Amino acid sequence: MNAKAWSPAGSDDQYDYTTAVMSVFWPEPHYHALVTRWPHLAAQVVGAPWVEHCRQVEQNCAYADRQGFAVNLVAGNLPDFETFLEHRGITTPSADDLRAYPAVRDAEAAMVAWPPSRTASCWCGSGRRYKQCCRPHGLGSLG
After folding, report:
1. pLDDT tens digits for 120-131?
2. Quick one: which of 11, 53, 61, 71 could link to 47 by a disulfide (CB 3.0–4.6 Å)?
């Protein structure tokens, strides 16, 4: 039997594999609750203040998009994060715990395709148009 090597992206004579990136962003109320409860996570992972978090998310999405990946955003939710930690027996989350949330197999949150159209509402929940809110952050340098 001749076994083919499996790849998470590409295609073989039976399947077409696509690769997508799921990026978690924290809506402003959940962001503030998260960094109030665990301030060390702001500096380690999510960015501080909230506008910096949005800038980092937008730049990460832009980078993944430029690499040819489909990008989906999912909103972080503090009660869901607490449940995620509880199931793992974690009381003080680390940066790795935050990066592992949500568990992809358990994720039930709605994902939103990124990027939205320029005139759509911004993904961050600000109520502003994407082109006037987070979009400019992804257009500049990724450095």
Report:
1. 999 988 889 998
2. 53
